[in-house]
Amino acid sequence: MRKRRIQELAKFIESGKYSFNMSVAEADPECGTAGCIGGHAAVIWPEVRDVGSGLPWPSFTFDGPKLAEFLDISEPDLNDICFNVPASSSRVAQISYEEVTSSMAAATLRRFAETGRVYFSRRDA
Fold this sequence. Notes:
Blueprint: H1 3-15, E1 19-20, E2 33-35, H2 37-44, E3 49-50, E4 61-62, H3 64-71, H4 75-83, H5 102-115
């Protein structure tokens, strides 16, 4: 696991430079949106972008396998982080996309970097 990269992503999300919306996977930096956790990752790390996703230019989204490799985490862990769904167990709190705030996303990433567990908590909102 590349903890520094995960912490860098948490800090970038928390900075508020781009709007955060866990329900939106695509990013469009020209209009100030980066969408979800994966979208924010694609803004700061072009190497994890998926530009062939059929989105109109200049929008893009993230490539899950590339992002998992870049962060050196498993794809099930990435799915838990980016899609807030348990991939292999019930370890992820069932919180709707609309409830996930940028603060909650950043706290979840930091907690994951320290513990290796993905847990979204309403207390972090």
